[in-house]
Design goal:
- This protein is an alpha/beta fold.
- It contains 26 helices and 12 strands.
- An 8-stranded mixed sheet has the order 5-12-11-6-10-7-9-8, with helices on both faces. Strands 2-3-1-4 form a 4-stranded antiparallel sheet.
- Helix 17 crosses helix 26.
């Protein structure tokens, strides 16, 4: 092949400001990644974006399960009744209103006691027997106990235990805090059965309460009847002694209260007291009426006021009101005003006459009351003298009388209690009242579909997020540039975004028809992927001080990581810059360059190394990409490593270095084969390719260590197939990234 004139070095390397600063000591680093400055929240958001399908699928599955559970679960209906439980009487014969309560009554303790009774097995068995629940298929099928034969049951019976367990499973009794209300509820798939059970339970509870009070009252009545029989004998004996003593000592009357002398003395004492009170009252009225202040005299006790005076005063007030209104409206000269003035004068004269008459009447009443008081006082003194004579023989009489009275009072008290006990037993009263009767529920109480769906939504979302985070932690592949740089300790030369197929209709001369997506720099030169390769070209040109590397070896850690695509597109953008480029397919095991460009060479690298062909005969220039020459892999050989490591290969590399501006050698994966390791020492620079989401951290670290151990001239790392939609940049970094690519396309 005839040599073509090369561009001068100054044309190949334009003096521009590097876009990524270089490290001292000969190694390059990229600008500090904006990912280092991102918050933890943004980091987790990127993980969720990347693993969004795990989150969505988990959410859909769990939410779907919750929908199925909510729609297929058995509908449970709850019927409720409210009871008002008032304080019970402390005695069975106390007929006070239970609603008024009693002193020292503990409402909470009483409600808890009644709630325990409602939950008791005895009451439950009564309801089961009353409603024949042991033979009700709606009840027994729910608990799978089956019908129970009609026979006496005990609490130790296994079938009874099963029935009680099933009955208590749906029963709920809750005292309402701060009130005397107890809420009784029962839950069952059959709303009618639940309602019947609640109402039957409440009715049975009230009947049991009434029966308990009736039995208590009956027992009390029987005891009182026996005690009254004995006490009646004592009363009769004490009264006989009292009557005999009265006859013996001439004491008239049945007792001291009905004794003539004593009764008269008491009567005179009462009349004297009343007379004194009357006299004081009349004297007070008289003095009050005789007061010099007319206003005071008019404000006498309403009980002592004369009706006529009340009417006169009321009429005076009315005329005064009319007089004031007309005077204000028409003046004092108005005829009606003069007429009202005359009426006031006449009315006030009548009021004065009536007040004088009242004063005379009050004086007469006062003098009469004083005379009556004096007469009663004299009569009382005379009666006291007679009573003193009687008291000398009444000492023993008083003792007998007190004994008789005491027995009689006790008898009367017990007799009253006996009657009360009989009434209480007959009334069948209860301190428990039904506030609300249970009604058949229209809507089920469970399952709560909205709650189940909300729980399923939250659980699905939380489970999806957790699964995404777990998978992210278990993922050992490379997920971002910073991670790759930290693992292999190499600078990042560039990131190639993930790309799809190129549209039909590309150029046909020298390339495939249509061109495959790998040659994006040729098929879509204005795309973001093409700009990424131009950015990679700039990084290669500035990867070292002085002249850039001319022989560049491209390898990866494992197969299918895109090293051939990187090699081909890098060669194209180098040639588009005006440099003479040789692209060598150094992968003698699985060559891809020829197929990628759609060419059929007559020979290749293996042919020229074994001297079966000349280099000029097998190298293929591409007319549609000026300055780009391709050397295919050649025929298949059984010893590719020996050919690549031979002295002949070294001679050709030296020759190419002098004939071309850049030589790009595509080699097999370095961890799978030794080809790349053998050639790495002959290259001016080695690019290590890693694929986002595929290359493992261990493989990348091993490949980097292997190449560094043989002193390969590593120029950096290329992260291929980077999915920008799965791991998005922040706004500032995205803007900076595309600004760099816009600058680099002018290089």
């Amino acid at each position: 092949m005839s040599s073509q004139p090369r561009l001068p070095a100054s044309s190949q390397l334009r003096e521009i400001e590097p876009l990524e600063p270089l490290l001292v000591n000969g190694s390059q680093t990229l600008r500090a990644s904006p990912f280092d400055e991102q918050s933890a929240v943004l980091h987790y958001w990127r993980i969720l974006r990347k693993r969004r399908w795990y989150v969505l699928v988990t959410l859909a599955v769990i939410f779907g399960i919750s929908v199925v559970v909510g729609l297929t679960s058995t509908r449970i209906y709850e019927a409720s009744s409210k009871l008002a439980i008032y304080p019970e009487s402390t005695s069975a014969v106390d007929l006070k209103d239970s609603e008024n309560g009693t002193s020292g009554y503990d409402n909470d303790l009483a409600l808890q006691t009644q709630a325990s009774i409602l939950l008791s097995d005895t009451l439950a068995l009564k309801v089961i027997d009353t409603m024949h629940l042991d033979r009700d298929a709606r009840f027994t099928d729910k608990k799978s106990t089956g019908p129970v034969p009609i026979s006496p049951r005990t609490h130790d019976d296994a079938q009874t235990v099963a029935l009680l367990r099933g009955f208590r499973g749906g029963l709920k009794v809750e005292p309402v805090p701060g009130t005397r209300i107890v809420l009784v509820s029962y839950s069952h798939p059959d709303p009618r059965l639940a309602t019947d059970i609640v109402n039957t339970l409440v009715q049975t509870f009230i009947e049991a309460n009434v029966r308990s009070k009736y039995e208590s009252a009956t027992q009390t009545s029987e005891w009182l009847s026996k005690e009254l029989s004995d006490l009646k004998v004592k009363v009769e004996a004490s009264e006989e002694k009292l009557v005999g003593y009265q006859k013996e000592h001439g004491i008239l009357g049945i007792d001291d209260k009905q004794n003539i002398v004593t009764a008269k003395l008491d009567e005179l004492n009462k009349e004297l007291t009343a007379a004194e009170t009357d006299r004081i009252h009349q004297e007070s009225n008289y003095k009050f009426a005789m007061s010099a202040d007319p206003a005071v005299s008019e404000n006498t006790d309403p009980l002592e006021r004369d009706p006529l005076l009340d009417k006169l005063l009321e009429k005076e007030n009315d005329i005064n009101t009319q007089y004031a209104q007309l005077t204000t409206q028409f003046g004092s000269g108005y005829p009606k005003v003069a007429e009202l003035s005359n009426q006031l004068k006449q009315l006030r004269a009548e009021i004065a006459d009536e007040q004088t008459r009242i004063r005379h009447r009050l004086r007469s009443e006062y003098l009469a009351a004083a005379q009556r008081e004096k007469m009663l006082s004299t009569a009382l003194e005379q009666q006291k003298q007679e009573a003193n004579k009687l008291n000398e023989s009444a000492i023993e009489y008083s003792v007998l009388k007190r004994d008789a009275d005491s027995n009689h009072q006790l008898y009367d008290s017990l007799l009253k209690k006996l009657k009360q006990a009989g009434i209480a037993a007959g009334l069948r009263s209860s301190n428990i009242r039904v506030v609300d009767v249970a009604q058949v529920p229209d809507l089920p109480s469970s399952p709560h579909l909205s709650r189940i769906l909300a729980f399923g939504l939250l659980l699905g979302l939380g489970g999806g997020v957790a699964l995404a985070l777990v998978i992210e932690n278990l993922d050992t592949t490379i997920s971002n540039v910073d991670e790759a740089k930290a693992i292999c300790t190499l600078p990042a030369l560039g990131m190639i975004p993930l790309q799809g197929s190129v549209a039909n209709g590309g150029p046909k001369n020298g390339l495939s028809d249509p061109p495959i997506y790998s040659l994006v720099t040729y098929a879509q030169p204005r795309s973001a992927a093409a700009e990424s390769f131009r950015a990679l070209r700039t990084s290669i040109l500035h990867s070292s001080f002085g002249t850039p590397p001319r022989v560049i070896l491209v390898t990866s850690s494992l197969p299918r990581e895109g090293k051939s695509t990187i090699s081909a597109n890098s060669a194209i953008v180098m040639a588009q810059r005006g440099s003479r480029v040789l692209l060598v397919d150094g992968d003698l095991r699985e060559p891809a360059i020829a197929n990628m460009f759609g060419i059929t060479p007559k020979g290749g690298l293996s042919n020229i190394i074994d001297d079966s062909q000349r280099f000029e005969d097998v190298v293929v220039p591409l007319p549609n990409v000026p300055n780009l020459n391709i050397l295919a892999s050649g025929r298949t050989t059984s010893q590719p490593a020996e050919l690549l490591g031979s002295s002949k290969m070294k001679e050709y590399i030296s020759r190419w270095r002098s004939e071309f501006d850049f030589v790009i050698i595509d080699t097999p994966p370095c961890l799978s084969f030794t080809d790349a390791v053998l050639l790495s020492r002959e290259a001016d620079g080695v690019m290590l390719v890693a694929r986002w989401g595929q290359t493992t951290k261990a493989a990348l670290r091993a490949a980097s260590d292997l190449l560094l151990q043989v002193n390969a001239r590593m120029i950096g790392l290329v992260l291929n197939a980077y999915d920008l939609s799965a791991v998005p940049y922040d706004h500032a970094y995205r803007s900076e990234y595309y600004a760099k690519m816009n600058l680099r396309k002018f290089l």
